Structures are given as C-alpha cells and as structure tokens.
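Support reply, case 0932

Customer input (verbatim):
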Amino acid sequence: MIKRILEKQIIERLTKTKKSVVLYGPRQVGKTTLAKSIIKKIGLKTLFINADDKIYNDTLSSQDINKIDRLIAGYQLIFIDEAQKIENIGINMKLIIDSHPEIRILATGSSSFDLSNKVAEPLTGRVWTYTLFPLNCKELIDESSEFEYDRNLEKNILYGSYPELFMYKNLKDQTAYLKQLTNSYLYKDILEYADIKHADKINKLLKLIALQIGNEVSLSELGTALGISKETVARYLELLEKSFVIFTLRGFSRNLRKEVTKMNKIYFIDLGVRNSIIENFNSLEFRNDTGALWENFLVIERMKKNNYKQNFVSPYFWRLHTGAEIDYLEDGGGKLAGFEFKFAKNNSKSKDSWLKTYPESTFKLINKKNYLDFIK
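Our regenerated output:
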C-alpha cells in the first residue's frame, strides 16, 4: 500500500487533540483504506459503521441519544464510512461528541457538497477536516524515487494517479479501469444528491470542458452548445467541482482596467479522467494539447501540495487585454507569486508585463527541469 501524506496528520489529530476528523474526497481515492490503516496504527477499540447498513443508519440518524449510547457503549473510536448517506449526520455527530468527549469519530464522505452542508454548522470547532485526492507526486516519489517519477512523467500526465490504477501493469487494463471509473463513479454523487433534470448534459458538458483546459471558459457558449441556460451550466459546474471532478481557477485583478477577470479556467482533478472522457491516451509527442495537459498537471499537483501542507494561499491566473498572461499565481501571506508553465520552452513572453504591473511580486518559469521543486 502506498503511504498517504495525510496519515500522520490524522493520527496526530485523533490522538493528541480532543477533536474528531472528517475526511472528504472523490470516490475511489482510498479514503476507506487510509482510515483502516489509521485505525490499526492508533490501536483504539473501534466501532466500524457502514452507512449502507440499515440498523446503524437508523440509529445514527435518530437524534435519540439513548439509542446512540447503546450503539457506541464501550468504544473509544467510531468509524463512519460514507457518512453522507446518514440523515442529519452532523447533528448526530455533535450529540456524540458533546455527550462523550472521550470518544473520537473518524468519518469519511465522497461528496463534499452534501457532507459539508450536513456537518459544517453543527460541528464548528469540533472536527478537523481533510481532503484526500488521487496520489500526489510526493507519495509516489516516497514509494520509489524522484528518478522513477520523472521517468514516468508522461504516463502520470496521461493516465492520472487514482490509487487502483497502479495495481494494473499494462496500459490496456489501466485504460479499461479509467473508462469504468468515468462511467460508473464519476457522477454518482451528483445524481444521488442533486436534482439533475438533464443528466446526459453532465457528460456532454465535461467533454466540452475537457477540450478547453487551460483556456477561459464562457458559460454562455457552453449553454448554447448544450441547449441549456448559462445559469444551469454554472450550477452543473459547481456540482462537478464540489464532487471533486473539476477545479476552477479565477482571474486575478486589483481593479485595473487592463486586467481580464470575467471568465474562469477549469481543470480536471485527475488527468486520467479527463483523457478517458475524450478517449485520447496518445503520447504527448503526437498531441496538440500537450501544453494544456502540462498546465493542468502542474496546477492540480500544486493544489494537492498546498492542501496537504496547509499552505493557505489563494490561487488565480492573470491576463491583460493586451494578451500578456501568467498561467498561475498565488496570493497569500502578504506575498504575490506568479508562475508560467512551459513544457518545451525556456522563455516567457509575459514576465516583464507581470513584474511591471506588480513590481512587488515574484516570477518563476516552471518547465521539465524544475517542476519537481514546484509540486513536491
């Protein structure tokens, strides 16, 4: 099993603080596997609850502390898998935490738009929250080496990093797994927990977005192409982001007239999913979207890094009406840092415009020679 970065952090939270833990993340990224590894290592007497089990579900959704007490009596840790399936899970977790401060809860959930709404308000100040993503570069490097990771860079860009993918030794099986993932799991949370009137539009929308990664996206144009309103497009995009399929990057501006901010860029959390949607796993040498894939790869890996290291920065892109553009920037801690991504080139056309507009900022070109420093 590939060791996950969050394991140590969550163990420390459960053993050295008085709070419980909620672990979000896409389906199939290993939340249950990670939770079981944590439980084994901390050695507390644990009640395992699968939210699909009706007996457990009925008790934990009852808001009846007497029923709940009978269920959890004698345990030190309560593990709730797929917690979003339990009605009023946040309120019931609050009941347990407040009435039994000696008991810890570790809950996992795959749909943040549902689970976060249920737990955020009732559990304010009572839980630590984490998000688990597909494997990040440091987890893979720790499993092998920087040399091996760099050697497999193209494969990681094309096939992504869902954990189960690494169980398959040939590209045919990996392609089949990604196809199954996109067909069976990708939209499951959205269809279960959101009132979607045009489910077929979700897949068509994703195909359109997949062909536009790295570019600014017009909601009106997407709506016209799909035959739905731009408001509906915006809602679908929000659901896809909250269910960990895509990631939105907004334009940066300090209210200068020359800056462009009306449209966002959209990236995929996992490029294997993106390439499966458009059914293209061709080598980077024979593609016309290599630059866009490189940009998506670096943005998402940087997001994972900042999330796991708890670097609290706000990410953006930047563009002027003149065409000058910075692919990615971070605003945080009183610092403004701009980055431009080049897969094959070693020069930037926009560096001078960026530093002239924001002379207090920094700039760095990220290419194949130094990308590991940026994402690891």
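We compared this against your earlier run and they match. Two observations from our side: The two ends are 20 Å apart (CA to CA). The chain has a mean pLDDT of 91. Please reopen the case if you see a mismatch on your end.
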